[in-house]
Amino acid sequence: MPRVFLTLAVAAVAAGCSQPKTNTAPVVQHHIDGEVVRLNADEQSAVIKHKDIDGWMKAMTMDYAIRDKADFARLHPGDHITGTVFVQGDEFWVGDIHDEPAAK
């Protein structure tokens, strides 16, 4: 009997480990204003040098996933953009991207 219990326990743990993790945290949105430094087509991400993101992050340069293919296709190094940083738990990405004229 203990052997059957052990086998069932191991199977239950293995089944639980194979289930995809879903992020149920709420999505929080923040405005981003910055410049595209470079693009990474393999990762569909952009390194963005941005101003302070109120309520989330100080000004810095970092890599952001761009989930929307159309948004990513419009980006070029040197573009000044505004958009939204979507934060869900420890995941974050940029979307709703708009090109902005460069400040003179």
Keywords, separated by commas or semicolons:
104 residues, alpha+beta, OB fold (Dihydrolipoamide Acetyltransferase, E2P), 5-stranded antiparallel sheet
What does this molecule look like?
- The protein has 104 residues and is α+β, with helices and mostly antiparallel strands.
- It has one domain (23-100): Copper binding periplasmic protein CusF (OB fold (Dihydrolipoamide Acetyltransferase, E2P), Beta Barrel), CATH 2.40.50.320.
- It is built from two helices and five strands.
- It has helices at 2-18, 69-74, and strands at 27-40, 45-50, 60-65, 80-88, 91-100.
- A five-stranded antiparallel beta sheet has the order 3-2-1-4-5, with no helix packed on it.
- It is globular.
- The mean pLDDT is 86.
Shape: globular
Number of domains: 1
Strand order of the largest sheet: 3-2-1-4-5
Major sheet details: 5 strands, antiparallel
CATH topology: OB fold (Dihydrolipoamide Acetyltransferase, E2P)
Task: Note the run of SSEs as H and E.
Answer: HEEEHEE
| Fourth CATH level, the homologous superfamily | Copper binding periplasmic protein CusF
CATH class: Mainly Beta
Q: From the 3D coordinates, which CATH architecture would you assign?
A: Beta Barrel
Mean of residue pLDDT values: 86
Q: Strand portion, in percent?
A: 35-45%
